[in-house]
Amino acid sequence: MSFSTIGALVFFFFSETVFYDIQRNLLLPAVNNYYINVNESQSDIENFQGQSLWLSGDGCCDSPGYNAKYCSYSMMEISSQKIITFDLVQVSQASSSVGMEKVGFVNCMGKMADAGLSVGVMATGRHVGIRKV
């Protein structure tokens, strides 16, 4: 629903400018601070070194079908249920929107290797591109 549609329904709602001011001044800094705090606590990653990890991974695109622009690929360690790594892929980084999930998977596996983590079991959503890796 757009701001103009809400205005036509005569609902009392704050303006588009106020919405973006709140987002810029309150929401985005809070999300950014949380992200920085979580990333700075490397103790979780260090706990997994030397273990053979059981991971699950899946990609989520911004829209279904063949016209997605972004894909977020996340890997979770199964026993702790913690996200170990993730990657955000734009369609320009892949051959097509269908190939974004494979690029995200490969990037996440590269991050795991760079951190010195070994993968014992990997469960995915059976994406066609990932099956070929």
Q: Going across the biggest sheet, name each strand in turn.
A: 3-2-1-4
| Element string (H = helix, E = strand) | HHHEEEHEH
CATH T-level fold name of the largest domain:
Nucleotidyltransferase, domain 5
Counted up, domains total 2
Overall shape: it is extended
Specify the CATH class of the largest domain: Alpha Beta
Q: From the structure provided, what is the oligomeric state, counting identical versus distinct chains?
A: single chain
Number of strands: 4
Structural class, please? alpha+beta
- Helix proportion: 40-55%
The N- to C-terminal Cα distance equals 41 Å
Uncertain spans, ≥5 residues at pLDDT below 50? Answer: none
Gyration radius (Cα, Å) is 19 Å
Helical stretch tally: 5
Give the CATH architecture of the largest domain. Answer: 2-Layer Sandwich
Q: For the residues shown, what is the average pLDDT?
A: 85
- Share of β-strand residues: 15-25%
Signal peptide: 1-19
Keywords: Signal
